[in-house]
Amino acid sequence: MMAVTGQMPMVKVVGANGQISLGKQYAGRQVLVEEREPGVWIVRTAMVIPDNERWLHESPAVTDLQAAMTWSLNHAASDTDIDATLTRLGHDQS
């Protein structure tokens, strides 16, 4: 079953280079294009996640990142006692 958008179908002309314009509101967006049968395409906006960043969207990384963001909202950034922090993290400045 198809979703009803409330908009009338638009007639677009495929240019000599095989392209159509979807409108400026979609400029720079990534889309998935599925050819269901010859001459029938489904075009959907999408967000592509690079393979090397996919782990950031999986558990437990998502939970850890959300906890870190919550913590950072409740603890103001400070550069006091930076030497002790660098030493604790193993980045001694000596």
Give the helix proportion (percent range).
10-25%
Order of helices and strands: EEHH
pLDDT averaged over residues? 89
Using DSSP, what is the number of strands?
2
- Strand order, main sheet: write it out: 1-2
List the total number of helices.
Answer: 2
Structural class: alpha+beta
Radius of gyration: 24 Å
Poorly predicted runs are none
User: Which descriptor suits the 3D outline?
Assistant: elongated
Which percent band covers the strand fraction? 15-25%
Instruction: Report the sheet with the most strands, covering strand number, pairing sense and barrel closure.
Output: 2 strands, antiparallel
Distance between the termini: 67 Å
Give a short overview:
Helices cover 22% and strands 16% of the residues.
What would you say this structure looks like, in words?
There is one protein chain. Helix content is 22%, strand content 16%. The protein is α+β, with helices and mostly antiparallel strands and 94 residues long. It starts with 29 loop residues before the first strand and ends in a 6-residue tail after the last helix.
Which structural traits does this protein have?
2 helices, 16% strand, alpha+beta
